[in-house]
Amino acid sequence: MPIGLDKKRLHREIERERRAKVAERVTQLGLQLKAAREARRGSIERIRLQCRAARERLRTTCGLRKERARLEGEEVIQARRREIQEERYLDKLQRSRPKSAQPLGRMRNVGREREAESDDEVRRNLSPDLASVFNKVRRHIKGSERRSRTEAFLEWAEENPDEIYAMQEQRAAREIERLVKEYQRETRRTASDRESF
pTM of this prediction? Predict the structure, then answer.
């Protein structure tokens, strides 16, 4: 039996086994690749669904806030319309009466009403950020016969943007400090919980 033939056959068998191993490895890698693609598709779909749900929640929340703001605005508009109609009616009655007659009902002093606009009314007319600033300076904001306290505050805010920014920055710094402390407490609590197990 020639040795050369055995070597050739041996090399062919080795090559066949190597090819079989490579084919098997390629098949395994193909299966892993397919599984990875399916996992990626599943992750993307899950994220897509989460984003869709988050958008729906935001739409609902924003829609509710928008509707609430619209209703509150409508109430204010209706109240102002009623006041205007009442003023016109009283003015019309006053003009139709003889000059010597006493005035009808109580005469409203709109200027005094503007001047005496309450803190709550001013806060309702402002955004939450400006309302927090108003709370700090409300004692210094006075109305007059020609402008309400809201108008006076907005003029002050327009003239003093640096003070508003500083107050909002202080508030944000306090909030950050509070959140950091809360996070540290929570971290300590979870660490102590782990130690107890």
Answer: 0.36
Q: Are 119 and 138 within 8 A, CB to CB?
A: yes
- Kindly state whether residue 17 falls inside one of the protein's structural domains: no
Q: Is residue 176 part of a domain?
A: yes
| Cβ neighbours around 131 below 10 Å, total | 16
- Judge whether residue 108 has pLDDT over 70: no
The tens digit of pLDDT for each residue in 29-78 reads 889 888 888 988 888 888 888 888 888 888 888 788 888 888 888 888 88
Three-state DSSP class for 33?
helix
Q: Is 124 part of a structural domain of the chain?
A: yes
Number of domains in the chain: 1
137: in domain = yes
Q: Where are the alpha helices (DSSP H) in the chain?
A: 3-96, 110-115, 119-125, 128-137, 149-159, 161-196
Locate 74 and state its tokens: 């409508």
* Residue at 136: amino acid letter: K
